[in-house]
Design brief:
This protein is an all-alpha fold. The protein contains 8 helices and no strands. Helix 1 runs antiparallel to helix 2.
């Protein structure tokens, strides 16, 4: 990852941390112009933060369709789907996160383990 992308990504994370969705969206747009997959993560998380859950999920679905090897996109897709009680889809996303770049079986299993308990509620 080059320095410009690394810096933009960190700025995007900082914007999310300070709950500045507008800034996070601007940074996501810059990352998209550079054809970087972090645009999907930052953009989706900013949408989620302001309550636009459907848009967040749609953006991640586009991201994983274009970049199916990026684990973090699958991870956030699984998180958001689970929060929306779309458990079967969430489990599938977590499973795919294990095989992606940066993913791990242990992290996927950790995220999948509470889903059956959530389904019973």
């Amino acid at each position: 990852m080059d320095d410009r992308i690394r810096n933009l990504y960190q700025l995007g994370l900082d914007a999310l941390e300070t709950r500045n969705a507008r800034k996070a969206h601007r940074i996501a747009d810059k990352l998209a112009a550079l054809h970087n997959t972090a645009a999907y993560e930052i953009g989706a998380r900013a949408h989620w933060m302001v309550g636009d859950h459907d848009k967040a999920i749609q953006l991640l679905q586009v991201g994983v369709s274009k970049f199916p090897h990026v684990a973090i996109l699958w991870y956030f897709l699984g998180e958001f789907l689970s929060d929306m009680t779309r458990y079967e889809e969430a489990i599938e996303a977590f499973e795919k996160s294990a095989d992606g770049h940066g993913g791990s079986r242990g992290r996927a299993d950790f995220n999948i383990s509470p889903v059956p308990r959530r389904k019973r509620k």
